[in-house]
Predict the 3D structure of the following.
Amino acid sequence: MRGRAWIGELRTWVTGVDPGLGRLRLAGVATAAMVLAAVAMSAVRAAPGSPSPWWCSPRCWR
Amino acid sequence: MVVFAAVLAMISNLSVNEPDNRRRRVTTALMVLPAAASTVVGTLLAEHRLVSDVLFVLVMMTAVWIRRYGPRGTALGMAMFIPYFFTQFLQARPAQLPALLAAVGVGIGSTLLLRGGVFAEKPEKVLDDLLRAVRAHVHALALAVIDVLEAPAGDEKAIDAALRDLHRRRTRLNDTMLLVVDRIEQLRDERGEPDEEAGEDDPRRALSLAVADLELAAERLAVSTRRLADDPARPGALEPEVREALLGGVRGIASATATGAPEPLRAAVLDAARRSVEELAAEHSGARPREQRVAFAIVRLADALTSGEGGEPAVPAPVTLAEPPEDEGEEDDESGRPVDRIALSTRQAIQVGVATSLAIVVGELISPARWYWAVIATFVVFAGTVSRGEVLARGWQRLVGTVGGVVAGMLLAVLVGGRPVPTLILLAACVFLALYLFRISVGLLAFWITAVLALLYGLIGQFSVETLVLRVIETAVGGALGALAALVVLPKHTRAAFQEALDDTVLALDETLGATVDRMTGRPPTGLPVVLARTADEKLGTLRQRAEPLDNPLPRRHGRGSYQRALRVLTAVDHYARALARLSDRIVVPGWAPTLDPAVARVRANVAGLGELLGPGGAAGSQEIVSAEELVDAAEAWAARCDDPGLRRDLLSAVLPLRRIDQVVVGFAGDLAGGPAPAQEPAESRG
């Protein structure tokens, strides 16, 4: 019972701290979009006929 | 290229803050144009260092200046800045242009696909979530009231801490209510329903009013609890049965508003809350007025929560608005100082231009390879700021966040030891946390982004403590140059920014009171009082934000004045003005005008006088503040003679907030002038 009350308090706190869960949704979608963009761009770069993958050189990660 | 596409996806998510899905999609799609243009120009000029640096500064200045066009301008400015930065950072060559443009399309396209399509916000769902958040905030406020009531007698420290917590929770509830009202208005706008034409059959108008009632009821509980704590006897000295009755009532409110509480349980605990205080509320002896007020507040909040669960709040009939005066909006509100005549976006664009030029030079001197960290730090500290105090605060937060991020990043990098799978999982987690927390603090964003960099360097085998220390140095330099520019180049004093927001708030409160009395006396108001009251509430939110860097006593003032206290007084005025505006929905009595008009006119003049008193001229330039007590008494006497008992009760309840506004304003003005404290210290001004 105490555990359930604690979970209830936590849920209430989370609901209150991020009204409408807007931040959670935005962060989730933005992370997903970043992953999608990275995967899609990797696929484009790996496609036959693409130029040499200079983007994976350490120079680009400075 | 992969990183470029991913960063564009991130930026096109974070910088687009349009209220509805359609505008959001259009803005996101439009971002392709400036992003592609600056990619092409940046790539073509990357070989010519001096020219590209000059253009980089111009791009940053434009990105800041274009913020004057609102959320869309801000987004397009970021779409211009980030790609240009990447072309310089990658030293892109013209041969890579097709791939870079593909990355622009992929990055922004990913956002359009996910945010604009697959995971597009459903406005009704967001509204439901926000209403749940409102209940959660009422729950938190009830818990804070419990803390005040349970604080031991004589423990001033504990009671004051509990009261501060109560004030914080009330502010958060207020912020969330603004989001709810915005969302409701947005839903109405999407359907093309103007507010003033909404009538009894409009469920959104009913919901909007139910939510306003709930907020007022929750605030009333907070205010009455504060007044109880002001009692010399202190709540710890309450009679045990009274304390238990009040605690029982507030605990019932807390249980009913806990997230996930089943519906049947809600109704039952709200009933129990009412029963717990019904004896106290029914007392006629007048022996415990402050305790009784808390009991009334509990009953009213329980009723408002029941109403919010499907009951019917009082919905007003449609109202005809007065024609606005022809010269409205043409007032010249610029002050005499030249810096105040320059628009905020122009002033900040110039500051950014100077600061980033210096950051390029100094950053390059420190590290020719990583000068851009200083430039980014300089650019970022100006985002969303108005005054130099805010720029300083953001610069400091970013530096602290970066230092913390370096430590965390080193620990994480050592923990994963360059293994790809755990590193990628941690990278995603850190990116998520950075994006989740960036609206709370720029320091938290810097913390997690620095951790991301440490992990990335670990992944490609370039991790070194020196690199991360260099990031701290470049960030410190960038932040310092940003702060220097804010202090030296066309500086906007933090107090001047506060003053602007104060003037706006006082004007909005004045308009609310004016429209309210017009509506109550049957004259066409200039706007809907509840809508004007909401605007005043938003202005107060801005004022609260501007007061954050100011925590010193007011300059050249005697007595117990402080910015925070001025804020509390205006918060009280705002609360009572909203209560009055809400009452105007059901009171229309033209015969009341001869006594109500002079009282409201005096109260409005006092509110305006307080604004002047808090201004740079102080008491010298302000109009005299004279208590409206006798005029309010006359309006109350007229109301008390009303034959209809229901109307009489409504009229008398409208006099109460008016009297409170006068008390808090006159009391605070007296304190600022160094005069004797008023006989009845208002609850909200308790310092």
Notes: Residues 354 and 485 of chain B are 7 Å apart (CA to CA). Chain B touches chain A through 66 residues (CB under 8 Å). The longest helix of chain B spans residues 156-190. DSSP finds 25 helices and no strands in chain B.
